[in-house]
Amino acid sequence: MQDPPLPSWLPQLQAGAGPRFLQIADALQQAVADGLLKPGERLPPQRELAARLKVDLTTVTRAYDEARRRNLLEGRGARGTYVAAPKAELAPVLDLSMNTPPPPDGVDFGDLLKQGLAQVLMRADNELLMTYHLGGGSASDREAGARWIAPMFGSVHPDQIVVCPGAQAAIAALILVLTEPGDAILVEPTGYPGLRAAASQFGRRVTPVGTDRHGMLPQALEAACRQHDARLVYLNPTLQNPTTVTMPEKRRRELAAVAKRCNARIIEDDPYWLLAESPPPPIAAYAPEHAYYIATLSKCLTPGLRVAFVVVRDPVERARFLAALRSFALMAAPLTAALATQWILDGSASTLMQGVRDEARVRHGIARDVLAGRYASPGDGLHIWVELPAYWRSYQLAQAAQNEGLVVVPAEAFATGGESGNAIRISLGSVKDRARLRAGLQRLSRLLERRPDAFDAAVV
């Protein structure tokens, strides 16, 4: 007698597609997210499933254990194993506002952390990990930075790397070094709020420059440099925050040429380069003496790694940059920097990076499925930029979403001057569970279909 067909949610197990128990657990998770498996539905007994999949019983046992760890299944003794009901969420709000890397599926972050710290503590002088350092990073830290940045530039000498306690600190130090109070910093009309905040604190003016669908316009940049006697430009050219625009190579070359002609300096804040699909080389590759390149680990590995690598090629400017940095952030925390270095040098960072990249693309697939036709963002990175229908204003939609237990960021939060557009940014990594992300996006999709006058009734 022919065996009955496998349950529709199970994959055809493939060699080279990762451990078989994880393939089964992943299929379970996807089936729950897609609604193919409902809460309370009974799963096949482990021995039966192992026989039908032609795998060892231990493989299925490990798969079910992994699914329980992900809160997908629950055992009911002799009655068998069932799909678990969703956990009650005590937090009243689903936060889709924080641009953080998603937890990578199939990567044991806790194990990476334990192993990395164990190696750091075994190889390093523990007293040195708990004392003051001069800043800029140790020789090993700079070597790790050069290795991390190699995919963007190729070979970079470690002496040209400065290790900083996060990208925001690096941006602030560069503003101090490269501008004077009252100077204009040229930016895109919609961009990273942290730049605007730092400029305001230091008494600098943020001046928007015209853009098109490829980013900042070279001719507009040149005109603004001359009009405002501006010496500093801030750009986030890869998966720009918040618009997700990635500048093509031609535009990057043109902007680099303008910086050279106008003797301007570019802060190239590039946290998402490693998340992008085949991005062009950095602008700094075309204007190495006029650009300062920042690559942070917080946006592509985990926010707790407050480490950024800054390429500063000129030794005199590097000394000035370090002096400015030390005025408010003496050093990157030695233990954090040592962990980042350990992960980069032993390959753990690459493993985690690939996991984050894969998970981000799965989440973009969920967003495309739920918000079909509502956005044109690429299928990578940590966020999407959703243009709103004319009957919604972005601040109004954000408030309505808040009333429904969702937090999104309106376009106004990213405005650097002039029109900011009518859109919201949705972060895809801040919700740990895919099913909760899908549910939140579905609620948002329904909200977008309703007109604001549906919310005019009094709320008590």
Automatic annotation (TrEMBL):
Superkingdom of origin organism: Bacteria
SUPFAM superfamilies: PLP-dependent transferases, Winged helix' DNA-binding domain
Annotated Gene3D superfamilies: Type I PLP-dependent aspartate aminotransferase-like (Major domain) (3.40.640.10), Winged helix-like DNA-binding domain superfamily/Winged helix DNA-binding domain (1.10.10.10)
Keywords from the UniProt entry: Aminotransferase, DNA-binding, Pyridoxal phosphate, Transcription, Transcription regulation, Transferase
InterPro entries reported in the protein's UniProt record: Aminotransferase_I/II_large, HTH_trans_reg/aminotransferase, PyrdxlP-dep_Trfase, PyrdxlP-dep_Trfase_major, Tscrpt_reg_HTH_GntR, WH-like_DNA-bd_sf, WH_DNA-bd_sf
Coiled-coil positions: none
Pfam families reported in the protein's UniProt record: Aminotran_1_2, GntR
Residue span, HTH gntR-type domain: 18-86
PROSITE patterns: HTH_GNTR
One of the record's GO molecular function terms: transaminase activity
TM spans (from-to): none
Family per record: In the C-terminal section; belongs to the class-I pyridoxal-phosphate-dependent aminotransferase family.
Protein name according to UniProt: PLP-dependent aminotransferase family protein
Organism encoding this protein: Pseudoduganella albidiflava
